[in-house]
Amino acid sequence: MANVTHRILLVEDDASLGRQIVKSMEEAGFEPTWLTDGDAAMRESPRAFALIVLDLMLPGAYGLDILKHIRAAGNSVPVLILSARNETRDKVRALELGADDFVTKPFFPEELIARIRARIRRPSLEAGGLVRAGGLEVDLAARSVKVDGETVELTRVEFDLLAALARRPGAAVARSWLADNVLDPDREGTERTLDVHVSRLRRKLGASGKCVATVWGVGYRLAEASE
């Protein structure tokens, strides 16, 4: 069962679907707050919630504009996007803007609840910029990485790649974004080169290399090795 202190913000204008999701959340032990208008969502404080479930097509503010507003304020609350569109470019765009997951309509409420539970369980960014995933420890401030307490020496690109994933633990980060923001565009700024760096990073991390998980068709994410 979910902890009842986990408050979830649902932004969905479809009355029938919204009622169904709220019922499923309450049965799962979550405490949902349901909004049906994008402008109302813009006025809500994301910090009051453990996770946000956000539809894209809303009256008032558009879903991706709400997402940009949340991330521009520096808030790292997990955001799960709901959409009737299933095109890869839409998913990649949402993930590039800071979404943590993308659920395509129609879906079973049980699937949504499972994804919410999985995201809440995933690694989190701690005070001081420390992220732990299984035996892997990434210290963003010190630019150091340890596996089972032993320091692992990484190149600049390898650390920056791992740090980009660690800043949004559990969330998929697009390969295109990583290539543009981690690699040197004058020397190696291609997605194929990025994949080579990921392969080398995984080897250096040993068993914890599984934490650098592939999200097929999108990019990579930092996950628990046991997932």
Task: Set out the fold topology.
Elements: E1 7-11, H1 15-27, E2 31-35, H2 38-43, E3 51-55, H3 63-72, E4 79-83, H4 88-96, E5 101-104, H5 109-121, E6 125-126, E7 130-133, E8 136-139, E9 144-147, E10 150-151, H6 156-166, E11 173-174, H7 175-182, H8 191-205, E12 212-215, E13 219-222
Parallel strand pairs: 1-2, 1-3, 3-4, 4-5
Antiparallel strand pairs: 6-7, 7-8, 8-9, 9-10, 11-13, 12-13
Structure description:
The chain has 227 residues and is α/β, with parallel strands linked by helices. It folds into two domains: 115 residues, Rossmann fold (3-Layer(aba) Sandwich); 98 residues, Winged helix-like DNA-binding domain superfamily/Winged helix DNA-binding domain (Arc Repressor Mutant, subunit A, Orthogonal Bundle). The chain is built from eight helices and 13 strands. The strands form three sheets. The chain has a five-stranded parallel beta sheet with strand order 2-1-3-4-5, with helices on both faces. Helix 1 crosses helix 5 and helix 6 packs across helix 8. It is globular, with a radius of gyration of 18 Å. 34% of the residues are buried. The mean pLDDT is 86.
